[in-house]
Amino acid sequence: MSTYVYAFTGASHPLPVDSLVGVGERTPPLRLVRHDGLTAVVSDAPERLRAKRRDVEAHERVLETLSAAGTVLPMRFGTVAANDEAVKAELASRAERYAELLKRLKGKVEVNVKAVHSEEPVLRELLLGSQELRNRSEALRASGGGSHQDKVEFGEQLSAALDDRRSQDAEQLVAELRPHASAVKLGPPVDGCFVNVSFLLGVTEREDFEAALSRLRQERSELMEIGLYGPLPPYSFLTSGEAGD
Amino acid sequence: MTVMTQASGGGGRSGSLYDVIELILDRGLVIDAFVRVSLLGIEVLTVEARVVVASVDTYLRFAETASRLQLTAASDTKTLPELVEAIADDDTKNGSKLVQARKEGSR
Fold first, then answer.
1. C-beta atoms of B35 and A81 within 8 A
2. What is the ipTM for the molecules in this complex?
3. Is A99 an interface residue toward B (CB < 8 Å)?
């Protein structure tokens, strides 16, 4: 039976695993594999794992519960070892690296920020800011809307201007929030958001960070919607210096 | 997942697993000695399908929205009736345009 791995923790973690179940149809109980000061939280691996709600949710619930109770190193979803011995061997062979990571992430959580533009107000600003775009729009309207090709070309021009605006706003948002966090990591622009970024926050940073975010939300409520998700286990901050990214 | 602060406004950006699924599927510790269960197809579907690529349809929508907006954006000097007209024309639900129209009127 192979072993599904959720997270590594240090010796001081309270490990509240009794109330939790693992991934898979059979919702297996969680087990602990220990080596020296390190503990791996694992379960029997299901025969079939799916990136569907049930299994992803189970994985996430385990990690969030562990993360709320203490520092964890979260595994990527779907990580399976040959057996418990292989997990122990991994803890033994890279004990120093994991201890170092746990120390660096002590008491820290990840929060994720995603922001989307409100399309109309942003297009309005772009038009107001560019004589060229205004002229073109005016010319199209004067000719009764313009041909399909004209509209596509104009739309493409607007899209390019919007892309510039997206990068500018993304950069600015990150720059405003970065001073309140320990680390930052950019993600892909999913679901039309112009910025998808994670921050690593220490206990003392959380209040300031949230205040800064609330300020930004208020200032920019007409142009964008800013979503904040977390606290999460530090998914995005697990690479130590030598590992790179 | 606990959500520290709800997103403002009613744009459906409430917290859920889906909002951070790319973190769960694409981040986290990867260990060479362990196997990652093969999820490739699903993963690509889940994450990359959510990256919106601009298309002709998007361009047409931008162009149409822009020509509609021109009514309120064309002139820096607006009379009150024009403003009222602009606001009445507005088909958005949240009333933020009212503020927008005022700002433009004062420029």
1. yes
2. 0.84
3. no
